[in-house]
Recover the amino acids of this structure.
């Protein structure tokens, strides 16, 4: 297998090519219909390169080999404010640190951020920075939760016949193999289970135990209609090589299972593990190869949200996966102040495509505790999608979806039966998942007019608005 040496940082691919201006002898110059493209407009091809992490005071002497070590990345993950201060030192203003401290205190999520991500934050503008917004809550930006929010808003637990296995759709299942991740994202839909207990939330336990796995495998084996399994968590970056083989072999051995995906945010937040954790990558590769030989598709699904998360290290990791024939698809969460502009989303999609990652879904932010400041309206999603579609290949164009609260599953954002931008209520149906049911979701309160905001504060008005929206949807749906 030809792999690039990890200590070089050749970046030939990411240099924009100059248009050929030489006209071969005997040919007329071409009359171009399109104006020449400004190379600056192809900026997504410029991948951050060199020892950029050395700008972080604690890591000014960390060389590339050390930074690329997945063991070093794990050891130096930031898990509390003291560690953050000790790492960024005078790069962050004391007022900002105080604000983060307040944010951590109010967060229902455990805190964990990889050195890779921490070093990508622009510490001169931490308030605006899209990576900071996703991982480090600041108290001054928090907004009260939407009154319609419940923990586990997607009802993953009530659709689980055995703990950690959600069977909602007819032919596919979601298998939560463990409950830890290499980072903890503020916006995590699974904050009911993922991460350590925090001051505010006591988590459901989904440990990687043999017994729980056996029960899940037993269930899958008894359901011949299931052809597709999502192996998620937590995060499959956290599985050991022997666990990847154990689970992969068991699924491959079930005749009715035709495809499965290992879900990991890892490639987005710690791409160097692909380059330096050979046992992990070899185990994945082995399962993918075994699957290919018996005509079953095994792929990786990952989770990039902003173009800044893609660097030259990402390119090298993705090249390695590509050389091994491993398909990588991406699911993003649409977040206010992170990727809710057309310009950013187009750049993300192009940059992912450039490193051979297929954009698959963009999720409208679910109702998750402590994240109202990150949520957007469905209307914003619709505006941005319009600009994304057409900007590149259709197979690299993500579908914008709403994961309907209450267990309706993913719905094309545009397919609402009713949407009132005044109250921010949209209503979806899901005939293949829950026939004859209606699922409402809610735009963030701060995106609404001041009179609608006032209405949401009155419990009786709330009920009325939801009832009206459901009635309007029922009148329209066939
Ligand atoms: C997202 C999800 C799946 C996979 O759905 P796709 O649309 O195929 O990506 C399966 N089960 C559950 C419960 C899910 O939330
Ligand atoms: S990596 Fe995934 S499962 Fe883990 S906290 Fe982030 S969004 Fe949640």
């Amino acid at each position: 297998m030809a792999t690039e040496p990890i200590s070089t940082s050749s970046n030939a691919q990411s240099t924009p090519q100059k248009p050929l201006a030489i006209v071969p002898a005997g040919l007329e110059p071409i009359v171009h219909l399109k104006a020449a493209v400004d190379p600056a407009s192809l900026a997504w091809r410029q991948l951050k390169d060199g020892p950029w992490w050395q700008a972080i005071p604690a890591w000014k002497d960390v060389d590339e080999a050390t930074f690329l070590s997945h063991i070093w990345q794990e050891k130096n993950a930031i898990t509390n404010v003291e560690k953050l201060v000790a790492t960024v030192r005078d790069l962050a203003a004391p007022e900002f640190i105080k604000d983060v401290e307040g944010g951590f205190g109010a967060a229902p999520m455990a805190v964990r951020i990889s050195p890779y991500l921490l070093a990508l934050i622009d510490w001169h503008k931490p308030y605006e920075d899209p990576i900071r917004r996703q991982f480090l809550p600041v108290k001054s930006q928090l907004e009260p939760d939407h009154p319609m929010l419940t923990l586990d808003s997607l009802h993953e637990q009530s659709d689980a016949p055995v703990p950690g296995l959600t069977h909602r759709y007819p032919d596919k299942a979601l298998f939560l193999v463990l409950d830890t991740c290499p980072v903890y994202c503020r916006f995590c839909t699974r904050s009911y289970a993922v991460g350590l207990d925090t001051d505010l939330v006591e988590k459901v336990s989904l440990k990687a135990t043999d017994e729980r796995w056996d029960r899940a495998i037993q269930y899958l084996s008894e359901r011949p209609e299931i052809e597709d399994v999502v192996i998620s968590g937590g995060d499959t970056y956290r599985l050991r090589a022997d666990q990847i083989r154990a689970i992969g072999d068991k699924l491959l051995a079930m005749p009715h299972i035709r495809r499965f995906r290992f879900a990991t945010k890892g490639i987005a937040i710690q791409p160097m593990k692909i380059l330096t954790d050979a046992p992990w990558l070899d185990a994945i590769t082995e399962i993918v190869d075994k699957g290919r030989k018996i005509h079953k598709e095994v792929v990786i699904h990952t989770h990039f949200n902003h173009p800044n998360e893609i660097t030259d290290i990402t390119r090298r990791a993705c090249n390695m996966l590509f050389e091994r024939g491993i398909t990588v698809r991406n699911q993003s969460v649409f977040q206010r102040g992170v990727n809710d502009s057309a310009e950013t989303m187009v750049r993300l999609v192009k940059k992912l495509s450039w490193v051979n990652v297929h954009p698959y879904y963009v999720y409208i932010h679910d109702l998750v505790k402590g994240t109202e400041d990150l949520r957007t309206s469905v209307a914003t999603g619709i505006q941005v999608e319009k600009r994304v579609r057409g900007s590149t290949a259709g197979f690299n164009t993500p579908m914008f979806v709403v994961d309907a609260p209450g267990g309706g599953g993913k719905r094309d954002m545009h397919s609402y039966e009713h949407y009132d931008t005044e109250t921010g209520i949209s209503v979806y149906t899901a005939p293949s998942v829950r026939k004859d049911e209606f699922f409402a979701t809610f735009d963030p309160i701060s995106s609404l007019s001041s009179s609608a905001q006032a209405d949401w504060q009155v419990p009786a008005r709330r009920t009325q608005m939801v009832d009206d929206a459901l009635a309007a949807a029922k009148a329209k749906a066939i």
Remarks:
- The first strand starts at residue 165 and ends at 166.
- The chain has 16 helices and twelve strands.
- The longest helix spans residues 459-476.
